[in-house]
Amino acid sequence: MRTIYLECAMGAAGDMLMSALSELLDPAARQEFFETMNHLGLPGVQVTRRDAESCGIRGTRVEVTVHGQEEHSEDVDLHTHAAHTHDHTHCHGEEHVHGHMHPGEEAAHSHHHHHHASPADIRALVEKMNVPAPVRQDVLAVYDLIAQAEAHAHGCPVEQIHFHEVGTMDAVADITGVCLLMHMLAPQQVLASPVHAGSGHVRCAHGVLPVPAPATAWLLQGIPWYGGSVQGELCTPTGAALLKHFVTRFGPMPPFCAEKIGYGMGTKDFGAANCVRAFLGQAEGEPLPKIVQLCCNLDDMTGEAIGFCTQVLLDAGALDVFSTPIQMKKNRPAVLLTCLCREDKADEMAGLLLRHTTTLGVRRTLCERYMLEREAITVDTEYGPVRAKRARGWGVDRIKAEYDDAARVARQKGVPLRQVQQEVEKSAAK
Which of 1, 423, 4, 65 is nearest to 246 (CA)? Predict the structure, then answer.
C-alpha cells in the first residue's frame, strides 16, 4: 500500500511538513509545486526552497515571506522571563495560533503587525486559489479544525473566532502547501509517529502559555504525544491540525519499503536534528487482504456444464474461477474447480457451486494474498488513446494495455497486437 510515514520526533509545523513532503517529489513535480505556490494569488507571498542543515543532516527548508518579511516565534524561559532565542529564532515557520472575541484587539508581537482574519475571510481567500478542488476542501477542513480548537480554548462560538497569526498569508501558504503536496503524492494512507510536543512556555498574542498551548492540546486529543526534555514549542496548532486531518494511524513505523525520504528542517538549534522526516513507500507490514478459496472435485460433469457454472460464479461476483485437471479414485480423469471470492461472498458462492455442479461438498480455505494496487488509465499513443491498467507496489510499477482496446487498435491500423502493446508501454513511460 502506497504510504507516507511522518516521523515527528521534533514535533510538527506547517512549513516543516511542507519542506519534508516537497523532497518526496520528482524534480519536475517539485518545480511545478513551487510555481503553483507562487501563483496562489496570496498578496505579497513568496515561497522559496532553500537547502538547510541540522546536526550535519541536510534537508530542505521552505521559506514563506509576506512582502519580504518572515514570521518568527518565541519560546520563553520563565526563570529569566525573557525570550529564548538563537541566531535564527524562526523554528517552525509559523506563529502560535490564537482566536479571540474582539475584532478590534491588536496582537502584541515583537516583530511586525498581524492581519486578523475570520473563518469567513479564510474561506473566501481559499475558494479563489488556483488549486484543485480537493486541495481547497482539505485546506478548509484543516482551518475548521483550528477554529474549533480556538473556540474551545477561548469559550466562544466558532464564528466569533479571529485568527491572529494563523490567519496571515504565510500560514495560509503553509497549510495550502501541505494539502497540495498530499494531493500530488496521492498516498493511500498516511501514518505518523507519536508527536513530540516540546515543553516549557511560548509567547503568543495573548501572553505566555504552557507548551503545548491550549489549542494544540485540544487538537492532540486522541493522538499519542509526549513532552520530552526539549524546551520550546515543537508542535504548533497548524501542525497538529494537519496531522489530525491527514494521518490515519499513529504509532511505530511498520515494516516499510521506503522509496524516498524527505527532511523538512527547522532553524532553531536544540542540540538534536531539528526536522520532520517523511518516508514514501510501501508499508509491507500491513495486514494482508484475505480471500476465500472454494474447491470441489468433479469427475462426472461435461465441459459445457463446468463452463456454465464458471460463468454463473463470475456473474455473481467471484474474483476468479478456474479449473485444473486432476486424477481421482478409480483412475478417473477429473476437474478441480476453484472459486476465489471475498469473505462476505463465500456462503453465496458455495451455494452456487452445490447447485450448479454434481459435487457433494465444497472445501473452504481462508487465504491471505499479496497485491499490487491497480488503476485504470488512458494512454495517448501514436495510434490514439488506448485504455490500460497500471499496477504499483512492492517496488513494482508497470503498465499493460487492456486487451480489448489493443486488439481493436491493431485491427484498425493493421499492425501486430504486440506492436500496439509496446507502444502503450513506451508512451506511458514518457
Answer: 4
Paired sense of beta strands 45-54 and 57-66, if any: antiparallel
Rounded-to-integer distance, Cα 139 and Cα 128, Å: 12
Q: Which three cell numbers stand for residue 166?
A: 494563523
Distances (CA, A) of 307 to 296, 301, 312, 328: 14, 10, 9, 20
Q: Which grid cell sits at 180?
A: 497540495
Whole-number Å distance between alpha carbons of 384 and 427: 11
> What are phi and psi for residue 282, nearest 5 degrees?
-110, 125
Q: Which residues pair with 51 in a beta bridge?
A: 60
Distance of CA 395 to the CA centre of its chain: 18
Question: Which tens digit of pLDDT belongs to each residue from 97-117?
Answer: 433 333 222 233 333 444 566
Q: Which residues lie closer than 8 Å to 86 by C-beta, 6 or more apart? A: 267, 268, 269
Tens of pLDDT, residues 291-349: 999 999 999 999 999 999 999 999 999 999 999 999 998 889 999 999 999 999 999 99
Residue indicated by cell numbers 496570496: 42
Strand partners, 250: 192
Number of neighbours of residue 190 by Cβ within 10 angstroms:
19
Please provide the DSSP assignment of 202-234 as one string.
EEETTEEEESSPHHHHHHTTTS-EE--S-BEE-
Query: Using CA atoms, how far apart are residues 276 and 263, in angstroms rounded to an integer?
Result: 6
CA distance 250 to 191: 6
Is 0.85 surpassed by the pTM of this model?
A: no
Read off the pLDDT band of 382 (50, 70, 90). Answer: very high
The Cα 165–Cα 107 span in angstroms is 8
| Lookup result for grid cell 497569526 | 165
Please count the residues of the chain: 430
Q: Which grid coordinates belong to 376?
A: 485504470
